[in-house]
Each structure stands twice: as C-alpha cells, then as structure tokens.
Amino acid sequence: MTLRHLRIFAAVYQEMSITGAAKRIHLAQPSVSLAIKELEDAYQVRLFDRISRHLTPTEKGSEFYDYAIHILELFEEMEHAMKSPEIVGHIRVGSSITAGSFLVPSAVRKFQERYPKCQVEVTIQNSEQVMQAVLKNEQDIGIVEDHVEIDQLETVPFLEDRLYFLCTASHPLAEKREVTLADICSYPLFLREKGSASREITEGLFRACRVRGKVLWESVSNQALIRGIQENQGITVMSRRLAEEEIKEGSIHVLPFYPDAFLRSFSMIYHKKKYLAEPMKYLMELFGGLEEETN
C-alpha cells in the first residue's frame, strides 16, 4: 500500500465513480480499478459494493477513507513544512451562519495577529453542512450550534446561547405579558432553512408540543428574516445577539416564551483522527475563550 493507492482511493470515494476519479486525477480507468483491487486484496476487505454500475462504500470502506484522508493530509502538511518552513500553512474553518456573524471574525482577527502568514479560510454554511464537511475533511474545524452526536467527531461546547421568538413592536402579541406556543403558531413564521440548528430545534419543539406552525418565509439570511417580520406580521426564531440593535431601538420585540429546548450551546467540532498542529490548537483556544468576552 502506497500514498498513490491512498490518493486513488480517496478520489474514487469522493467521486463515487471509477470514471469520475480517473478523469479527476488524470489516470486511465484500468489503473484506477487496479489500485482499488490491490487495496482490497492487501487488506482482504471489500471497500465498495458495485451494484448496477454504481459504487457504494462498505462500512470498512468508509472507515478506510477516514484513515486515508488524514494520512494524506498529514503527509502534505509535512511536505509543505519541510519545503517552505517560513510559511505556517492554512486552516479551513466551517461555521454556522449565526456563529459566523458574531463569533468567528474576532477569533480569526486575533489568530492572524500571532500567525500572520497562516491563511484562515472560512466557509459559512448551516450546521448540518459544516458537520458533513468536517467528516469529509473538507474543513479542519467546525463551529456549530448545539451538541453533535457523531462517533467520528470530537465535540467541544464552549458558549451558551438561547433562541427567542421575535416579532415587531407593533405585532398583536407584543402587547401580551404571557404568550403560548399556540398563540405563536397562529401567525406566519419566518424561519431559517432546513438543516440549520435553529430550524431543527424549533421544529423539534413543535413536534414535542404537538402543534403545527405555518412557515411563510424560509431564508439562509438572518437579516432577511428580520426585515421580513418588520414588513409583515410574522414571527421569527433566532439568537437575540443577531437582532440586538433592533431590540435596543425598540423595533423588534422578544416574546415572553422561553422553552428549555431553546437553550443551546455553540460547539467546536473536529475529526477524532485530525492532526492538530500548534496554530490550529491556538485558534481553538481563541474560540474557547470567547465565552468570557461575550457574557
């Protein structure tokens, strides 16, 4: 087994196609097929099931990919460090939209003060997309909302947060001292897209309480949701950190309904097989230290 075998396997796994992998890494299809067969023969396992000309990774295939991608990454990091020791490298951070709005920028700024030559690439996605990217080693560190229960990932909670039901100050419910979930669900809802933590938590609350809400607007943009309820008699769900200015000026009202399900935490996630270089450890320390600054 060589690094060449690992690179070919990783390409096939990511493309889920011998043809696609061959085109991507500029090899003939027979060479790619042979490399996969040699790996399977060497370890006496089947890495892919071949059904109706489609490849599906076996359980051992997925396990092998976890090892392969991190071995390749560590090798590339070694090559980079040995050939260009004056350059630290780069770190890929995936962040949920909420965390990316008020947590990530300050941590990255402080990190760059210590490691000015280390490039930090930040991708803002919903929490589900971040988790998948970290699993596939497309991102080194993920910042997501709430705890992650995936065996391959290490989860480090670092900051508590709460979601709130928000409406405009002129909304009929804004005058009430007490509201129920049924009251809230009688108005149109303006929510984040499916896969976002706030959407999953909200829909989980609805299911637990056996109520149904009508989602009128769906957006990846928190500001679009705020603007939406400002122009319409709707209700949204988000961290008050994202609407702090509007709440202070009085245009947005926090409804007096605080379910336990809305208390959550932000977490750092990384693959358990991830090699944590010193710059990456420092960036994680900065995220962990945000609790003191934001409370």
Protein traits:
alpha/beta; Arc Repressor Mutant, subunit A; D-Maltodextrin-Binding Protein, domain 2; 13 helices; elongated
Integer-rounded radius of gyration = 23 Å
CATH superfamily of the largest domain: Periplasmic binding protein-like II
Give the N-terminus to C-terminus distance in angstroms. Answer: 51 Å
Order of helices and strands: HHHEEHEHHEHEEHEHEHEHEEHH
CATH top level assignment of the largest domain: Alpha Beta
Summarize the biggest pleated sheet.
Answer: 9 strands, mixed
Mean pLDDT across all residues, rounded? 88
Number of strands: 11
CATH architecture assignment of the largest domain: 3-Layer(aba) Sandwich
Q: Report the β-strand fraction as a percent range.
A: 15-25%
Helix fraction bin: 40-55%
The overall number of domains is: 3
Q: Which term fits the overall shape? A: elongated
Question: Count of DSSP helices?
Answer: 13
Output the CATH topology of the largest domain.
D-Maltodextrin-Binding Protein, domain 2
Pick out the low-confidence regions. none
- Based on secondary structure, the structural category is alpha/beta
